[in-house]
Amino acid sequence: MDHVEKDIPEANISNVIGSLLDIGDDLIDPADEAGVFDFGNVSRVSRPVYHLLKRLPTNQRVDVLRGAIEKGRAVAVQSWLLRALEEAVEKSQNELLSAEDVGTVKSAWIDRVKTLSQDSSFIAHPELSRVLVFWRRWGDEDEVRTCVDGIIETDEGLLRLLAGFVQYTKSQTMGDSAVRIQPRLNPKWLEVYLDTAKFAERLRSLQQKGEVPVNEDVVVQQFLKEYEMLEEGKDPDGLGAFDD
Predict the structure, then answer these.
(1) Angle at which helices 141-151 and 155-163 pack, to 10 degrees?
(2) 10-150: what fold?
(3) pTM for this one?
(4) What's the sign of the alpha-carbon dihedral 214, 200, 76, 111?
(5) Tens digits of per-residue pLDDT, 214-226?
(6) How is the chain split into domains, by residue range?
């Protein structure tokens, strides 16, 4: 951000935007999130793009952005940027693109996600849950469901999808220097994509057969724990749900 306003020549702006929207997702690292309101490098990469767009002539912005999205791989950073542009239009606050132009680039983003989702590496995307949320919000829900159905056809895909939705919360008791890290995986987060009851049944079967890899065991256990809490009428998202 220190170099956005003056240091990048105008002739290079489109190239910088294209590069950031291509490699941005490779820079995602949970360790770079400084706190609950810090969204890490997804946010840090999208902000320079947002402000570089301001330096482009109005009639060039949509073409530059659409071209970058059509060629880029950083669909999480792209979605973060598009949501910021969408919010600016909704609030009528210094929007960089018109509502029509935002719709145009969102359509380009959806097409890009559909293309990338056909690659086997898509399931390992570090922001899979966020990408699916925006794909579902801006695109066709049935297409997203079809994509997920294809992923979970195999047990490996099933477990990788689960890992893509796990979250970790941090808490610290007053006077205690230790920080408690709690994995979270509420089945409700997944119910728009799949049948969570069948999902839980398959996971239990994998556990019984000893076919859950060690590095994914915690994730499976957390999903089943929160599934059981829901069956008992407890809210896993409720205050103090995991205090014990």
Answers:
(1) 120
(2) 1.25.40
(3) 0.87
(4) positive
(5) 999 999 999 999 9
(6) 10-150, 152-244
